[in-house]
Fold:
Amino acid sequence: MASGSAVHTAEFIVSSARLAELYECSALLRRTRVRAEEIVDEARALLAEAEREGDPVRILMLTSQLDEARQAYRKVLNAYVTICRRINEERQEIIQAQMERERATRLSGVA
Structure:
């Protein structure tokens, strides 16, 4: 029983460390997402300015840059959503493992 407990403890430590790493990644992606959103807003404002001024060369260039900024933002947003899902999955796995250990402990105590 003691070796099983040590294995469970080791598994919990590994899961907790993995979850901490995922949280660090999500924090980095959150900051990146915010910055990418700011860049899209800046590109949109520059394009609006060029449109008000009627500058067709700048309009064409800034439209292309706005599209690139939006594509980059989408990639960052997708990565952020993916990491958030993985965090939720990892937390669920930890909770499930804890519940199974508690159930096994209660059952072994009854026998």
The domain at 2-110 is CATH 1.20.120 (Four Helix Bundle (Hemerythrin (Met), subunit A)). The helical segments are 2-53, 56-110. The mean pLDDT is 89.
